[in-house]
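From the pipeline queue, job 12 of 40. The input is one protein chain; the requested action is below.

Action: predict structure.
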Amino acid sequence: MICINKRLLTVLMMIVLFGIGAKAQLLAVKTNALYWAGLSPNASIEMVTKSRISVEVGAFGNNKPYGYDLKMTGFQPQVKYWFNGRPMTREFVGLGIIGATYHWDEHGINHKGDALGLGLTFGYALKITPRINVEFTAGAGQIYFHELRKTYDDDKWTTNPDVEKAETLTGMVDEDKYGDHYQGWNFMPFNLGVHFVYILK
């Protein structure tokens, strides 16, 4: 699988935020209300580095939202270009990355894997007060996934015959023998949101 090392990712994000944040012309914290509606806590920080450029880094996660058998954690960094020359005001376009680790069950099939993608976001920031914005975003991107799928049938996990044969020959046991590896690309909606923004400086 794509191995997303959470500790390493956290350290790298902190280094980036500290380095850019120290020179930021504007600094804001924000959260996506649509993710919260899906019971997915999320937060991000955005820093204006040039007159038309800002950098945003965020993270999100969930655990069995509305009882649905799903667990996911992910991150979403992006770079934005503001058309009117005033960052965090009016129209912008963003180039972003999304990375996630997920585990979910549906119709007797268990999915456990990672995803990584790149996408474009278009948005509009509506200024409510000098420190509060509401930001509307929508976009699309290409997502690569790599997962282990296991099928539950007749009260037991079905076994991959090829793996069982290899275990017999080698005497080694594969913990993921109940399943098959899948990978591919999906074109998907990207960074849909209604974001509440608070400008710190």
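Job complete. The helical segments are 6-21, 33-37, 161-170.
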